[in-house]
Amino acid sequence: MIKVMLYEDNPQLREGLTMLIDGSDGFTVLASYKNCDNVTDEVDAWKPDVILMDIDMPGTNGIEGLKKIRARNADVKILMLTVFDDNKNVFEAIRNGANGYVLKKTPPAKLLEYIEEAASGGAPMTASIATQVLKMFSQVNTSQNDDYNLSDREKQVLQLLVDGYSYKMIASEMFISIDTVRSHIKKIYEKLHVNSKSEAVAKAFKDKLL
Amino acid sequence: MIKVMLYEDNPQLREGLTMLIDGSDGFTVLASYKNCDNVTDEVDAWKPDVILMDIDMPGTNGIEGLKKIRARNADVKILMLTVFDDNKNVFEAIRNGANGYVLKKTPPAKLLEYIEEAASGGAPMTASIATQVLKMFSQVNTSQNDDYNLSDREKQVLQLLVDGYSYKMIASEMFISIDTVRSHIKKIYEKLHVNSKSEAVAKAFKDKLL
DNA sequence: TGAACAAGCACATGTTTATGTGATTGGTAG
DNA sequence: CTACCAATCACATAAACATGTGCTTGTTCA
Predict the structure, then answer these.
(1) How far is the CA of B161 from the C1' of D13 (A)?
(2) Which tens digit of pLDDT belongs to each residue from B47-71?
(3) How far apart are CA A35 and CA A31, in angstroms?
(4) Hey, is A164 helix, strand or coil?
């Protein structure tokens, strides 16, 4: 028997979901609330397996609720429930340890399936959400890697710049004169199309050159 | 009718899958191959909707095949198929634009469902894979966020530093005197425990302060 | 009400960067 | 063989930065 809790501000939907879930074999709804104002105590008291959490709620919203719960409880499965597949919220929810993310328009049978999946350690997601997550993921981890044709020596200098070394320090670190350091850095600026140390450092991070 | 192509080295499994998919209403298998050596030409010739792609194949493997296909074709849906939910491969596949990732032990009915989901733009994933993806995602995007108690104004200055502005430019951008810019920057250096512009910029990136 | 602090401004001094011009050496590709 | 380029060094100058000291104003919090 999967023990479910419900956070949803719309009374009709809350009732509907409760009836659907509670009326299905293998599921029971322990309690339902219209916002997350006392979420910590409530979850502590009921010890559910899965929590269905609406995002948009007056008072403490779903993301805040999620954070509060995760601050004390890493085990309970939390399924975010929302009308929009809004990029920012999906991102925030995942970042804060949501186990799944489904749209409210999900058909009842599918929803029950999702709850089961969450309970058994899966990560149920509506197709559109899953697509978004994959997209975000590949964006985050894809850098065009222009390389800019930096020579080995130049990369070395850039690395030291990034580590906060002054020209003088770089010179002694690399056993060359400060004027040589200058030449290298000038070349680096040309190749990166920048004209200051901090821009070069910023570019090194942005383009993951090092 | 969803047009499917198959890349799978194991003859039994290849035949089994072909029979399953081709024998189901709404699906047709255009062709199947035992590796990706000529994947570009083959996909060009058949123009499938969905490609089932085994990862582990002799010759050109599934990840390589995926890359080759994506180099010329962004539309066709590619569903990775594997025995392991191996972290590295999942990561690589997603990075390179796979649409889904399912385990071979997936039951036939579920597999057909996944193919349909992929065809209609979804991102089908076996539960264990989805869980992994979420985990990776939250790892990648979780930084301790020390914050360092920067004031709003200080954050603003730091942002402009990162963007490569000089003190003078920051002053005119923020409508304050250059001396005030200096004060702010001094304070920022204290809070971040650094003592140069480039170190501050580097720290801003490392700690994702902005 | 009084301490703490963010935000603003001023002036001074020394260091570091940015930029220009120019030169030597050694390796490599045409 | 020669043209090209990375790596090295030198000298010079102006702009930008780092640091110190000191002052005013307004807000917030105990």
Answers:
(1) 26
(2) 999 999 998 888 888 888 999 998 8
(3) 12
(4) coil
**CA B175 / C1′ C3 distance in Å:** 30
3-state SS assignment for residue A123? coil
Say if the Cβ atoms of B198 and A161 lie within 8 Å: yes
| Reported pTM | 0.61
Q: How many residues does chain A have?
A: 210
d(C-alpha B9, C-alpha B53), whole Å: 10
With CA atoms as reference, report the closest residue to A98 among A120, A66, A124: A66
Q: Which class for A187: exposed (0-12), middle (13-18), buried (19 or more C-beta within 10 A)?
A: middle
pLDDT tens string B68-87? 998 888 899 999 988 876 76
User: Which tokens sit at B129?
Assistant: 């894979």
Q: Buried b vs exposed e over B80-118: b needs ≥16 C-beta within 10 Å? A: bbbeebeeebbbbbbbbbbbbbbbbeeeeeebbebbebb
Within 7 Å: CB of A176 and strand D?
Answer: yes
